[in-house]
Please model this.
Amino acid sequence: MSDFDPRSTRWLAGLVLFISLLTFSILGRLYYVSFKLGPDLVAAAREKVIQERQVPASRGNIYSSDGQLLATSMPVYELRWDAAVVDAERMNAHIAETAKALAHLLPERTASEWGSYLRQQFNGKRRYALIAKNLSYSHYRKVAQTPLFAGSKFKTGLIAEERFTRLMPLGGLAERTIGYQRPDATAGLEASFHETLRGHDGRRWMQNLGGNQWKPMESSYTRDPQNGQDIITTLDARMQDAAHRALLYTLKKYGADHGCVVLMEVKTGKIRAMANLGKVPGDSAYTELRNYAVWEKTEPGSTFKVASVLIGLEDGTVDTSDIIDTSPGVYTIYGRNVNDSHRGGYGRISLGRSLELSSNTGIVKALYPKYAKNPEAFIDRMYQLGLADRSGIQIKGESMPHIPKPGDKDWYGTTLPWMFFGYGVLSTPLQTLTFYNAIANDGTMVAPSLWEATRDRGIVTDAYETRVLHPAIASKENIVQIQDLLEKIVIRGTAKNIYTDSLSMAGKTGTCQLNYWDPESRGYQASFAGYFPADNPMYSCIVVINRPVISVGYYANIVAAPVFRDLAMAVYRMTPQTSAPATGYWAEGIQKSHSQSQKTMTQRRQTAIQALEAGRMPDLTGWAAADAIALLEEHGFRIRLHGHGRVQRATRQDKTIELHLG
Amino acid sequence: MSVRVSKKRLQQSGRAAREILRGSFIGHPVIIRNLPFALYVTGLSLIAIWGAHRAESRVKEISKKVVHLNELESEYLEAKSNLMKMGTESSVRQRSQALGLVPSHRAPERIELPGDE
Model:
């Protein structure tokens, strides 16, 4: 084979044979792969590269009735560190400074602890070391700007993982009422409206492009994702803030264990504020721990006397003008004493006056002889007044009121007379308020509601309609009598300390002994339930303060009633009064100066805009800071403010303008 | 041990292999006739490949934008939350106390002017 001839037949035959063998072996392999291994491989590939993936629906927001955002979903970040990526030079150059900065940003470790922690991760070449969890975006950015972590992630090894969490922009306000929905625990409106808020995840076939990036494979979804709807609550952020503030102030002042305030619109039953604050165990701070207003049932005490007198009036067994001798301030039934808080009693007074002064003996002496032989009549009336029912509020966990009945195993001869002034009966603050609201609403009992409307992408899909529980709990005349007494309680009765001539209020105090049978855990509960303005009720409100420090004060008129007054005044200040249309000299003067100032403002704005567009600094002297900021920011400037008042001087440096006010 | 293969057949198949290797079949009239269609199919496949590429870069672009959107949203919510907290009467009260301001005891009055809507 010394002379190689490519045209020789033998060589050609060899080549053809070789190629054919190759071809057959490839075909054979092809057959084996596609038909024998095929189905399994296809399935495996599908699982990895092609998947029917979830397209998550975003959860709806919760708004207050005045349009403030109460709860929304916000991304938070978990920071991890791939220490193996970082080179030693970089590590040594920046570790000291970074540790110091981290100690400031993430104070769970000191600077030296951060230093040794980072060093440890670096030496161990950890690929996924935890730096911090649940950081907000700005917090995360600050960490990412520390020397070691600043720059591209391929050099720094910083890994930021994003996750969605619920945020309440108003912080602790109405925290418990808004609630939460977690796999392990639920509470409040987030739980009650979970189905509406959460929406439905969609499904779609997607193809993996490497990393965590997925490309949709078809233009349609297997199942369309449906975002959650928004819930608008009846809460008013400003009123909630006022309630929270007034309650917190009092709880701190009297060192009380916990308390709640509920503010309700009389005609509709819409709850405008619901604040619940409790002392954090082992701390002096207060926060929203439980929804006491909905959940906690206690003996209402003297606020219940209003119901007792109303029952007597409805049955015609008593009249507010009946005269009762309250001296000596003690009345003994079956060996147990009914005492007045005023030693010696109040002398001979009317039943109405007994209610104004909250005389236990007065109420009991008037009612007991009428019902001692027929307690069922009294109990039946309680059911008629709606005192035995839940209010039906849209929050899970509302307690059922408790009303003793003759024949119960804990029914004694003293049960009925003690019920007259609010012992033995159990109800929640919200249930008591629902009753007082009915009195303010001329006898019509409406259900309380925290839900105002449901909204889907800006369009209201469902709205609350006031639910009447009881069209008339009592006759009109009797309701008017009670209303009159409640107003007198504030004018000249137990709550006269909160009287003010700028706003008429009506309500009843209740100082109730807790666990009076046990000297160890004895304490007081101070409450006030009422409504305002007394002559044209707009809002009803209940305040309950549990276990104030006795040496500081525990009487309801001192502890609870001022919270009511503060909230009432705050709400009153939020409601503009419309005076009769101005006429004559005044009207002309106001109109003139109004249109004048509008004209000059428009002119000055135009001049300023012209100056800005020409690249000059406008004369802003005398402008209100808000107007100046709005204008300048519209033109892309950043503003720094100094002082208060109107603009005196403005200086500019590049895109930053400093406004000096005075 | 001689293999009896027809010399003629061997020559024939050798020629066929040569023809394939030489690529002269490309000039075959059938192929020439269908060239526009072949070009059309090639064009279509190029468009399909280009489209798939664009879709991929779109997906990458979108996922980058989503991260950015979330960051902006988070920043916006933080600022909004701060503003809301600062805007509550409670904090305005606290801050204005230093200036000697206290809340009014009277409700604001709305003055209606004749001719105002």
Remarks:
- Residues 76-163 of chain A form one domain.
- Chain A touches chain B through 53 residues (CB under 8 Å).
- Chain A has a mean pLDDT of 90.
